[in-house]
Amino acid sequence: MSTLRPVSSLLFTTAFLLAGHGLHMTFLPLRASELGMSQTLIGLSGSAYFAGFMTGALLIPPVIARVGHIRSFTALMAIFLSSFLFLSLVDHGFFWIAIRFVLGAVMCGAYTVIESWLTEQTDASRHGRILAVYTAIVLTSMAVGQYLLGLAETNPLYPFILVSLLVGCAIVPVSLTRSLAPVPVPATRFSFSKLYRRSHTAFAGGLGSGVITGSFWALGAIYVLAQTNDPSFVPAFIAANIIGGALAQYPIGMASDRIDRRFVLSALCAASGLSAFGLLYAETQQELLLGAFAFGAAANSLYAISLAKAADNSKRDEFVTLGSSVLLLCALGSAGGSLIIGWAMRLMGNEALFGLLGCASVATGIFIAFQPPGKTSVGIDDQSAFIPSTSAMAPAAFEQDPRSGDEPESTVEPIAEPDYDPSSELVLTEATA
Questions:
Q1: Integer CA distances (angstroms), 338 to 43, 83, 335, in order
Q2: Domains delineated in the chain
Q3: Among the four 76, 85, 149, 288, which has the fewest Cβ within 10 Å?
Q4: How far is CA 153 from CA 17, 161, 289, 319, in A?
Q5: Share of the chain above pLDDT 90, in %
Q6: SS (HEC) of 249-268
Q7: Are 391 and 303 spatial neighbours (Cβ–Cβ below 8 Å)?
Q8: In this predicted structure, what is the pLDDT of residue 122?
Q9: What DSSP line would sit under 368-423, residue for residue?
Q10: Residue 189, phi then psi, degrees to nearest 5
Q11: Contact 279/219 with Cβ under 8 angstroms?
Q12: pLDDT tier for residue 408 given thresholds of 50, 70 and 90
């Protein structure tokens, strides 16, 4: 408890913010469908959200560095509330795409404020535990937020009000905290090419997890509503997916500490593919819930294991770059997958969602399974300890290596490194932003 006391206000903010975030991520695709938008347009709006998320990761840290954490968070939440409420007034697809881009950018900025503050308030020996608690709060809050969606049956404007209330409440703990604001947020550092050279497995896992989970978030609610024609069932379906991922992540992570993570990722991809194909043929609500739980347990664990694999293959001073690369690659996969699968659903029907997600899972698993051992291989005894995590975070979460304090740095041997040209790494600075 003493570990959490210094960051309690930040964790309360996280709970309110992610409850509203989880609700709005499910509600907006349903609202767009209710307004008569096509699956292609809904997929494009989901793609815009993840594109905005990537943009926010690159452009917002310099803003936070200039005006401070509390002012930045308050301004970002004001933009979120104004933009989100604006969607209740318009039904044109262009506005939805533009607003969802803005929502993605400001949500990434909000994560950046919270996570950089968490990093600043915890020393290296406790950072892994704080990150695990943070991840648990994120997943629990997003699951709880789903059940507030049932109020939409009473009045379609209620979800707009509820999301606004939750996000508004998230501003209060941070604004009133007595904790000192942290140092300025550093610019986001990432290098997809370096990640690929360090670990083909982590690269494929990060990209594949984005395609699979991002497309589900963008279009899963539309699919289950079309299958059941029961709006009240949609929150339970999405919540089952989140709960499956939350319950499975730690056992799977513990297993990955004892088994080559390449094999764990391949097995997760196979399980994700099988559960996706099972959802394709599910008919009853019970079958859909079971399929959503199984799909969430497998698919939602892909990102965390990919991040752990990147940590295995990184030196101490590289984890920030490689961890950020996995996260942004996941967002890139989410943006591309939502767009392509939304277009496919319009052409081939709603069944294309889980059909293509199953194919993407299998293809990712095959690529990982057939990666030959080479310079980037890491022995099981040399793997770092698994830290629960979720793609609902910003690169600021990696500013302190979560492995710090797990073992003395002198025991961590860097892997053999291929020839590397430092000029090829992309480092975004405030001047270039």
A1: 5, 21, 5
A2: 5-172+189-396 (1.20.1250.20)
A3: 85
A4: 23, 14, 21, 46
A5: 54
A6: HHHHHHHHCCCCHHHHHHHH
A7: yes
A8: 67
A9: HHTPPP-TT---GGGPPPP----SSS-GGGGSS-TTBTTB-GGG-PPPP-----GG
A10: -115, 130
A11: no
A12: very low
Helix-strand-coil split of the chain, %, nearest 5:
75, 0, 25
Q: At 138, is the secondary structure helix, strand, or coil?
A: helix
Q: Count, in order, helices (H) and strands (E) of the chain.
A: 15, 2
The dihedrals phi and psi of 407, each to the nearest 5 degrees, come to: -155, 155
Tell me if residue 189 falls in helix, strand or coil. strand
Per the DSSP assignment, residues forming a β-bridge with 189 are 427
**Torsions phi, psi of 353, nearest 5?**
-60, -65
Q: Please state at what angle helix 302-312 crosses helix 261-281, rounded to 10 degrees.
A: 170
On the 0-12 / 13-18 / 19+ scale of CB atoms within 10 A, 256 is buried
Give, in order, the Cα–Cα distances in Å from 93 to each of 37, 38, 103, 133, 152. Answer: 7, 9, 15, 38, 21
Residue 86 has pLDDT above 90, yes or no: yes
Helices 200-209 and 302-312, axial angle in degrees (round to 10): 160
The one-letter amino acid at 170:
A
**Would you say 323 and 387 are in contact if contact means Cβ atoms under 8 Å apart?**
no
Nearest residue to 262 via CA among 365, 158, 397, 414: 365
Give backbone dihedrals phi and psi of 190, rounded to 5 degrees, phi first.
-155, 160
State in Å, rounded, how far the first CA of the chain is from the last one.
Answer: 40
Residue 293 CA to residue 243 CA, distance in Å, equals 7
What Cα–Cα distance (Å) separates residue 201 from each residue in 16, 40, 302, 383, 387?
A: 35, 31, 11, 14, 18
Do you know the residue count of the chain? Answer: 433
Tokens encoding 158: 């209620």
88 and 28 Cβ atoms separated by less than 8 Å: no
Distances (CA, A) of 19 to 142, 162, 215, 350: 5, 10, 20, 27
CA distances from 282 to 61, 231, 294, 354 (A): 44, 17, 13, 11
Does residue 46 surpass a pLDDT of 90? Answer: yes
Q: Collapse the DSSP code of 190 into the 3-class scheme (helix H, G, I; strand E, B; otherwise coil) and give the result.
A: strand
pTM given for the model: 0.86
- CB-based contacts of 295, cutoff 8 Å, min separation 6: 216, 241, 244, 272, 275, 276, 279
What is the band of 422 on the pLDDT scale with cuts at 50, 70, 90? very low
